[in-house]
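pasting DUF1211 domain-containing protein for the record, 250 residues
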Amino acid sequence: MNVNEEQELKKEFQLERIILFSDAVFAIILTIMVIELKLPEGFRSVSKEVFLHEMKNVSLQLFGYTLSFFFVAMFWTRHVRLFGFVKDYDKGLLVHNLLFLFCISLFPFAVSMLGGFAKPSSIQGQWGFNIYVITIFLCLFMFSFLAGYLMRNSEKLCYTPAEMEREIKWKVLKAHNWIAPLMLAVLFGMNIAGVPPQYFVYTMAVYGVVTSRVSKYYYPKTLADNKPFILRMFASRQKKSRRAKLPAGE
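structre below
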């Protein structure tokens, strides 16, 4: 085995370690979040009123875990898709990836703060909602930061840069560089103004509308191809049915 082959094997091994480490962080985060779901002490011997009150708190925690599982899984699938194009690494990629994983690791803490939702008007509810939404936008921003580093160094670090740009929808991710900080500034202003935390969910709705418009503008065909499997299967059956009804030769 010559020196070049040894270097290539070492490079592949080190890159595999980076990916495996990232996957382990995601798995640990999901495990920690579900471990936090537990009933309080003496739950079986309490009165009906206390039981219903505690069940309300548990149901809110379960909702927070379910929502967080969706977000963490979404970031994991994006991370897998992005690193599917990576062929090499450098110090900058390590730093950007660790910063992204740091933001992801905040999810268990953010979920634990959702206990304040029992009283949305309380200080616990305000801080809980603020921290949770801020964590989501931080993750979005840091993922676009990570993708941006790979795009800027794609010739050296990635396979098929043009295909990667289309696959990860880079122009949409690039928009996160100003959308996420803008949303964080809006949240900060709403917090100072004393806006009730339940209205903060509108920032997520605005984010969804803006990113959908950007994606539709730059990637109209990809957006149509990304419909849920059931809808695509139903659409394909409709096409087959229409073809069957056409006269022969048309």
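DSSP finds eleven helices and no strands in the chain.
Residues 48-83 form the longest helix (36 residues).
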